[in-house]
Design goal:
Elements (H helix, E strand, L loop, with lengths): L11 H10 L1 E6 L3 H18 L9 E5 L6 H9 L3 H8 L3 E11 L10 E4 L5 E4 L4 E6 L10 E3 L13 E3 L2 E4 L8 E2 L6 E6 L4 E3 L8 E9 L4 E4 L12 E3 L7 E4 L13
Antiparallel strand pairs: 1-11, 2-3, 3-13, 3-16, 4-12, 5-14, 6-11, 6-13, 7-10, 7-12, 8-9, 14-15
This protein binds 2-oxoglutaric acid (AKG).
Length: 264
Amino acid sequence: MPTPLPKTKLNETQLRQFRDEGYVILGRVLSDEQLEGLRGEEARFRANAQVGKDQKNQTLFFSQVGPYSQIVRQVGLEGAHLDALEQLIGPNLMLWYTQFVTKMPDGESGKSEFPWHQDNGYISIEPANNVTVWIALDDVDTRNGCVWVDPKSHLQGLLPHKKKSADSWFLEIKVAGDGVPAVLKAGEAVAFTGLTLHRSKLNHTDRPRRAFFFEYCDPASVAVSLVDHSGDPASAPRSPVIRRAGTWLARGQLPLPPNNKFEA
Ligand SMILES: O=C(O)CCC(=O)C(=O)O
């Protein structure tokens, strides 16, 4: 009989670290069964993406996979990390984004790096109450491309994210220092704010580095799509986060619309 995981409730020190530094290590959030389940799903999505594509040296992204995966929904809506998120965001929790990130062995190409960025630099959540829960599906460290966070960077607010060239998604953000590597065992997670600068370096090993992340926010938030726009939140398209495809209410309830004008 599988043992249920204890819920991850954050203590005062962890809450202070999240508030002051913009990130906190949550520890183990997946049961063995959930870890195997998510690894199986990563393999299924990777096989499906393989057709005619060279995946060598690449970082592979499988995004907004909730509708396609029962285990993603189960972990995202009932996982051990939800109590911690309630402490960080509040009683109403919207799961609004999901993504596998598989960093293939880099060899010498240097292509598998993901440079410094804020998650809100792509789709900005307003107000910026959103939290990313980045879960290692393999043991991760500095050799295979763990995620690094820049402590206190969230205090700078939303920074401009600029594409290096028209055909490159690489972004240029100047960061002083190296940041802190989130060294995690498979099934463990780090949580950070949508404004926390983070990155991952190359995978120097000969095995893929698999990870999965969820993003949550308060359901009353608005999503502003900065991708393929000038990056100026004032002119970018915006919509209530509850109207986006692939979003679920994980806990609590939605705020009532004015005059009970419920939309179909
Ligand atoms: O998993 C990684 O290597 C980083 C991915 C990431 O930060 C992102 O997709 O926003």
